[in-house]
Amino acid sequence: MRIAVFTDSFYPELGGIQDSILATGKALGERGHEVVIVAPRASRNDYRLAQVPPREVDLGDNIRIVRRASIAVASSTGQSRLLLPTGRCWRGLRDFRPEVIHTHTFLGAGLEARIAARRLDVPLIGTNHWAIGEFSGYVPLPAAWVRRASLKAVTAFYNHCRLVSGPSHSVIDEMRQYGLKSASQVISNPIDTTLFTPVAADARQALKTRWGFSDATLLYAGRLAREKNIDVLIRALPTLAARHPDVVLALAGHGGERENLRLLAEKLGVGERVRFLGTLDKASLAQAFQAAEIFVLASTSETQSMVMLQAMSAGLPAVVARWRALPEYVDNHCGRLAAPGDAEDFARQLTELLADPVLCRQLGDNASWRARRYSVDSIVTAWEAVYARTANDAAFRFPPLGAHA
């Protein structure tokens, strides 16, 4: 098939959405599909922050990446960009003749995808990766108003799509509450289960030594951002340290909250227990997971969390907030759920697992087994079926630009 993908979130920006698009696109190309990815033009600083050379990513012969003019937008990573919508991207797709257009974002690239789908008369699929209402704190307006307005606007955009997907039921259900009428389907993001895989005990011990991890190392990976609630994990450390003197919280990633988190750890007297690992490439991140004891995530803004699934695939039990999508992927068979924002409850759940290494390993084994259902092969097979069904739907009619407004 010929598939056009639009996104504002793309390489070299670091994040789960970006990883998902890269993995899915590469696998589709390897299966013989032709894919054009329309994405924002990145700056040299974006590549520098990602610690990669300033050149285009190579996804194979069947994948073509088209960069369009963009502007930088404020974000915790310092890499986010917005494709400038001109209404002309469709012209570059006329010779390609896409059979389906798939947008992963609803802003600049999403608007271009919508225009292209209408002008080229092909069906539009939209994926919502964002719990957009949880980012209301970044806007200097009343949070409740921003949350409602943003959810209404996002839902109105996705009502122009033939099919709407999300990586969890929670994101689809929330959109339904705000008026989503389009057909919908939950499709997970894919993870590389060959890279993120458990290792034997002796290899694991060697990795612990290499990374300097104790037998009570908790690992978080992702943006160091307010909505990730990393402060909750740090606030749990004093209680944990009283029971487990060797407990350490390792934070992999970068973001604007790093200094605030460092100061909080120092204030609570646990500065030496918080290790900032910085940005890790995928191979190093897999090793860090393999060397740690438990993956931790206190975020209340997740529509899935790919790093959580990667950690689980590598054999780590997950202790996460009981909020939004996370309980769809974690239960007592593969980890523990803690009350959102409750540092003491996180400490209780973590103490239980750290006190019982046998249970911890059993939950980690279960987590790895569960995560394998989200392998790249499985998810790409699901997308192939969706693309074929949508492209071949004889009843398809693209709604006019003013529909569902």
TrEMBL record:
Signal peptide: none annotated. It comes from the Bacteria. The keyword Transferase applies. Keywords: Transferase. One of its GO terms (molecular function) is glycosyltransferase activity. Residues 215-367 form the Glycosyl transferase family domain. The keyword Membrane does not apply. InterPro entries: Glyco_trans_1, Glyco_trans_4-like_N, Glycosyltransferase_grp1. Residues 15-194 form the Glycosyltransferase subfamily 4-like N-terminal domain. This is Glycosyltransferase involved in cell wall biosynthesis. It comes from Paludibacterium purpuratum. The lineage of its organism: Bacteria, Pseudomonadati, Pseudomonadota, Betaproteobacteria, Neisseriales.
